[in-house]
Every structure is written in structure tokens, then in C-alpha cells.
Write a structure and sequence with these properties.
The protein has eight helices and 21 strands. It is an alpha+beta fold. The protein folds into two domains: 265 residues, 3-Layer(aba) Sandwich (Aminopeptidase); 118 residues, Alpha-Beta Plaits (2-Layer Sandwich). Helix 7 packs across helix 8.
Length: 400
Amino acid sequence: MSGAAERDGADCVALLEQLVAIPSTFPPGDSSAICRHIAARLEEWGYRVEVASRAPGVDNVIARIGTPAADGRAELVFNSHIDTVGIGHGWDTPPLALTASADGRLAGLGAANCKGSAATHLWLAYLLASRGGPQRGEVVFTFVGDEENLGPDGTRFLAEAGLVRPRLLILGAPTANQLVVRERGVMWVRIDALGKGAHAGQPEAGDSAVLRLLRLLQHLQRELGARLATRRAGTLVSTMNIGTIEGGDNTNVVPAHAGATLDRRLLPEAESVAGAYREIVELLAAADEPAGSYRTELLTGTDGFSAKVDGPLVSAFRAAAAALDAGELAIVEAIGASDGRYFAGTDTEIINFGPGEGAQGHAPNESVARAELLQACHILAGVLERLAGFRDAPPPLRPA
């Protein structure tokens, strides 16, 4: 490794160490302290910085450099969430301190999901500032909360409020420095079954909401399950999962109410939230339950997205990796959902990329390989140079 590369690696590790040390767990989901830290660094480097929030304690940093297009859109936006899951049990090292191991791994809460990506984005931000900003367009770095909660006050807020309008969007994610170019949509639905209460010693006098709910779910599992078995896009599959069931008040009472929640994962482009919800409503209507004996509610939902494998983002990533002799980047599929879904249905091209393995996130002793962290920095620098360029090349800043 060259001296410059080794220095860059030390700088990025130091940035990650600072981020891990600042608690930003959900619950409670407070991202204000870590956002103050990030905003101060970015302001120091010359960025136009805004801390935006619409819920107390859920702060989001927006840092801009360069000139936006005539329509106000940024050419390139980097996004990373800086909240983590709770600490949990089973840690062998202090979770809020970055600990290096003999095999070159760095352990700490969020090291993989997703403070590792946040550190690479910060490293990239100081590199861009040290080289005079972008030659073309505006580059924006966003560091957001409320992701682990799947909540509305992080990236979703920035998108809905029009605070971030990217042409190209790179989301930090633990992809082991491979590319996620498409993602299924996600929809949550609630079904409430209604009945008539009665004494358990005389159940025929009542109408069990639990039994009605079971009939509805069995009908849906049978009918929708058969349809979903045929819906595929390569290795992506369309799925339904019954996540929760609850009902009744006492063992000795015929239940008058029962409810369940469903998770549907939707194929990008082929399925939409509106169509998938309508499909559930229509199938339940054919279940022969009396009118008014149940109700459905769409709790939340976002469509999937898919970037072109020969588009500017994928092309820039592959060229950057080739220039580093990093091998050809693979396109991998995501099991979960990222904040990119809040830009689905727009013409924004979206990619997930970052150091760390998905299996590391949300687990005790979460870690990221130091070499992978450094490789992510240099690939991202190559992508940035190809898509926005650098104005000049003065001596680099030292952010750590």
C-alpha cells in the first residue's frame, strides 16, 4: 500500500472512530448529537450546511458544494443513515468504541450498518473540498436519521420537502463494495376482523373475530400465494408475510376483534403499491365474509426501483474499480429496503454501495474490514471524479 493510501485509510478509520463513539441508537432514535458533529466538520471544510428536521431529536444534515442545475437539481447526492439499532447483548468489545482486531477488522456499533459508509462519505466530502469542489454541477452529502425505524423523518422527509432533488443518488449500505441497482418495493397492510362477543361457555351466541380473521388469512394465503409463486424478476421474488396476529381480551370470552399485519415485497417496475393493495382488497372481497365484518388499511408503502446496468452510475463504478485493479464489481440483490425507495417513481438513478456485509449489521460484535473501508473510499473517489470532476488538486485536507 502506498504512503498516500495508508494515510487515507488512517483518516477514514479516524472518522469512523468518531462516529461510532457518538450514540445514535434506535430507540430512542436521537440523531442530534452526531449530526452536530458531522455538520461542524462539513462547515469547517467549506460546505453550505443545513440541519433539517421535522421531529424533535431526528436531525438530518444536508451539505452542498458546487452549482445546482438551472432546475435546482443536484447532479450527484450521497446519502448515508447515521442511526443504529440498540446495543443489545453479546458484545466482546465496547460497542461505542472502535476496536481493531489482529485480522484487520474494525468492531463497533454501526461499523457496517451504516457508519462505515458515513465515514467514507465524510472522507469523500473533505477530498472534494480540498480539490476545489466539483467541476460540474452540485454535489450534496446527506446524513440522515430515522432509517432503522423505517420512519418518515429522515430521507423520506428530505424527499417530500424537496430539500434534496438528485439526478444520481448513491446510498451507503453494507454491500461488501458490490452494487445493488434494484430493490423491491415494500408495503404493510393491516386487516381487522370484527365479530360479536359472548360467553365462552356459549360460543354459538357470539361470532368469533379470531376465526373470521383466520379464514381471511387462509383465503389470502391460498389465493395470493398461488399468484406470487409465478412472479419473478431474475432472482427477485414477489412475497407476502403475515407478520403479526392479535385478538381477543380474555380466554373465557368469544373475541369481538382480531387484527393482523402483512408485509408485501413488490417487484420493481412490475408491481406497485396501489396495484398490490387493490389486489388484496379484491381477494378478501371474494372470501365470502359478510359485508362490514372486516376492514383493511394501507399502513405504508413505497414502490421499488431499478437502475440501468449500462447507466452512468454503474458505468462510473465499474470504471473506477477497474482503474484500481479492484476487479469487476458484481451486481447483487437486496433482501431489505433502503431509503432509495423514497425516490422510486422519479427519474433519479439510484444505487446502493458501501463497505461491510449485510449479515454484520444488527448483530453483536458488528465489524467492517479496514481494507474494505479504504477500498470503498477510493472507488467512490473515482466515481466522483468521473461524474462531477474536481476543480484542482491542492494538498489534501487532513480531516481526522
